[in-house]
Write a structure and sequence with these properties.
The structure is a homodimer of 256-residue chains. The first copy, chain A, is α+β, with helices and mostly antiparallel strands and 256 residues long. The first copy, chain A, contains 7 helices and 12 strands. Chain A has 3 domains: 32 residues, no CATH class; 136 residues, Jelly Rolls; 78 residues, Winged helix-like DNA-binding domain superfamily/Winged helix DNA-binding domain (Arc Repressor Mutant, subunit A). Chain A binds a DNA duplex (30 and 30 nucleotides) through α6.
DNA sequence: CGTACGCTTGAATTACATCAAGGTAAGTGG
DNA sequence: CCACTTACCTTGATGTAATTCAAGCGTACG
């Protein structure tokens, strides 16, 4: 097991004037351990209009090292997390200890939504690379204070997008052949990095073959074989976790 | 194709004093075509405290006949729906016309969440039986008006629960053998009807074998064979869509 | 009455899991 | 620095579970 438990505090700072860890403040600052609502909305790509009322709201950041977890299953809910940078996976682990990957998070992803209804996270989020996250504490999300209406609207929007992504995953992982699933997975990853402004042709996968397999509902050997097959067809070039998409069109239209 | 398109209006009523279709009002009424926030929260099983400020908010109901759709993929978002009674399925249909079931809705389910972020429904909801739904219009959800804070909080909570259900589905439909999937599906259905106060031993499935198969990621023949196998083991009794659970313990612990 | 649809069951085929072996890369301790 | 370990990945051989194709039955409905 790689997952090392990390609860609550990460880098324990406490410069005098700073508020208690996790609390937001209205005091403007240039301290790089805080993010404002504008940055949060940009990360989420929330394109709605902001009233401007909340622009002084600040949110605490949190760094998580590769292999560490952001939260664990069953842990008390303490807010949603927006990914500033880094890659993560979310997973549920069932009784007999076997892990099941639900999603892969990256810059702009929103984590922890499932924690609201039972006030307890129902999956775990594990950093695949070093990560920087922004915590949106539940106190601000549900305060009902008028100063948070922008945040609430953005949160609705982002949650809906995560639901939509979940649907996409669901369909992806139920589509016919395993080779097609892997092809679509790579396609999806490519679109993700493209939407972040990077080259859609070259990917560095942050997750293992086993993770991909768990996510797609196949074994790691099947994933490996699918990569080899797609490489053999001249669609991809695969060296460990470095993927080069040689033929984007063929990848997009690949149906086995 | 069973799905008959139904857009917007259902039973066109227009008794003088009623507001325009789909608008909420603060005027108290005993008209049974409207539901108040209290009923909505009860249906959702939202157990949070309500401020009481919104108790006069009224929401328009909508009846949908079996086989008709509540909304279609790509249709403009016009709010979330809470199921008052009846059974539904939500599905996405991809380019080559093949349908993929995402979830089965029943009393208390929340539909349409994925529509918020693109302002457009991204799946379709089809009634399996005659249904009665309550519409929560987006105008109220995002109004920012203080009078809606209870609704907003309940909506967050319910959305989170739907996300959680989605995760459960996801894991369910990725677990090992098809017979186990079917067993867990029946188990889940049983728990659902039990939580609504009905007998958990006797189920009437509203969906076809094909729907179940699509949901679980197997073919309809496989579902049928799984039912037969579970019946042969003395765990279930299956007559068409009538299911009697003979051994709840055996069903719960069934692992193939 | 006939057609359509949903369901079951059987036989043949296939895609995937499983088991197993070997290879590479990163990290650890002597 | 090198042996040693460990985790990750690839590839092959074999078995098996699920799909596919096909036939037949019951029920609903025009």
């Amino acid at each position: 097991m790689l997952n090392i438990q990390t609860t609550g505090l990460t880098s324990p700072i406490s410069s005098g004037w700073l508020p208690a860890i996790g609390r937001t403040r209205f005091k403007p600052t240039t301290d790089d351990r805080w993010s404002d609502l504008k940055e949060v909305c940009e990360l989420l790509r929330f394109d709605g209009r902001l009233s401007g009322l909340d622009e002084n709201l600040l949110f605490r950041r949190r760094r998580v090292k590769a292999g560490q977890s952001v939260f664990l299953m069953g842990q008390d809910f303490d807010g949603l997390y927006v990914v500033r940078f880094g890659n993560l996976k979310t997973a549920v682990t069932n009784d007999d200890g076997c892990e099941h990957i639900l999603s892969f998070g990256m810059k702009g992803s929103l984590l922890g939504i499932d924690g609201i209804c039972k006030n307890q996270y129902r999956n775990e989020a594990v950093a695949l690379t070093d990560c920087d996250l922004i915590r949106l504490p539940s106190s601000e999300l549900f305060s009902g204070a008028r100063s948070c209406s922008d945040l609430e609207h953005a949160a609705y929007w982002a949650i809906s997008r995560e639901v939509l992504r979940g649907q996409t995953s669901y369909v992806l992982t139920h589509s016919a052949k395993s080779e097609v699933r892997v092809a679509r997975f790579i396609q999806l990853q490519s679109e993700c990095v493209a939407s972040m402004g990077y080259s859609p042709r070259c990917l560095t996968l942050p997750m293992t073959r086993r993770d991909i397999g768990s996510y797609l509902g196949v074994t790691l050997e099947t994933v490996s074989r699918a990569f080899s097959a797609l490489a053999h067809l001249g669609i991809l070039e695969v060296v460990n976790r470095q993927i080069v998409i040689l033929s984007p069109d063929a990848l997009r239209s690949y149906e086995g």
